[in-house]
Amino acid sequence: MLLYPGTIDLSTTHLRYVATVVRVHRRRIGSRWRRLSAGQQALLVLAHLRNGDPYARLAAGFGIGIATVYRYIRETVHLLAARAPTLTDALRRLSRHGDNYAILDGSVIRTDRLAADRPFYSGKHRHHGINLQALTDPRGTLLWVSDGLPAAVNDTAAARHHNIPDACRQAGITVLADSGYHHIADGVITPYKRVGGGHITTRELNPGQRVANTALARVRAPGERAFATLKAWRILTRVRCSPHHVTTLAKAIHTLEHHPHHQG
Fold this sequence. Notes:
Elements: H1 12-29, H2 38-51, H3 55-62, H4 66-81, H5 87-96, E1 101-110, E2 121-122, E3 127-136, E4 142-145, E5 149-150, H6 155-161, H7 164-170, E6 174-176, E7 188-189, E8 195-197, E9 200-203, H8 207-220, H9 225-231, H10 246-263
GO molecular function: metal ion binding
Domain DDE Tnp4: 104-255
Organism: Prauserella flavalba
């Protein structure tokens, strides 16, 4: 077997944060001895999430069994996911910063096809996956990631399922979104769309509508970084575990993007 050195493009702040989470958990459950220290377990998990390193490679690199790698990763990912901000947390943070609007976007995280997974097939994207919704602040900071839904659920249905429009309206937050959320609810601003198709004569947008769409796209642009931020963690480029685990992975990654820099 050949071994090679690797790097993880993260700061030591992430490592210290995850190690602290693991260390606190071990004390709470009374775990006295592990094959890896809390710091080594944290490093293993970050290598898996950031670089997408598979269990077999991690087992060889850390000198432990594949089953142990699996247990360490699952344990830590669940601990991190439990610390992810809720939708209510996100809306409170917007209010604290004096922001009166948020940017909503959705994405389908690709998964391997499994038996009986037809609900997870996205006709739009032509692959199996999980639909995630995300809210960002006006500067593009990721505030909240939803639970996953099968990819066959479109963005409008997903946003309604998670009660995003109503929650934002009650919090006094306007939502900016793309045309996939057209007419979803009052308080959600989407681009103007051309009228037409089928037997209806197509009506082009007038100059004012085109200008409005351009302005909206410019304001929404920072929000498009949210999923780019998530997918920078290579484990989400193509998930090979159960589709139901995508939610846990995404929320764990959101915690790593949010808490280390805000709570130390």
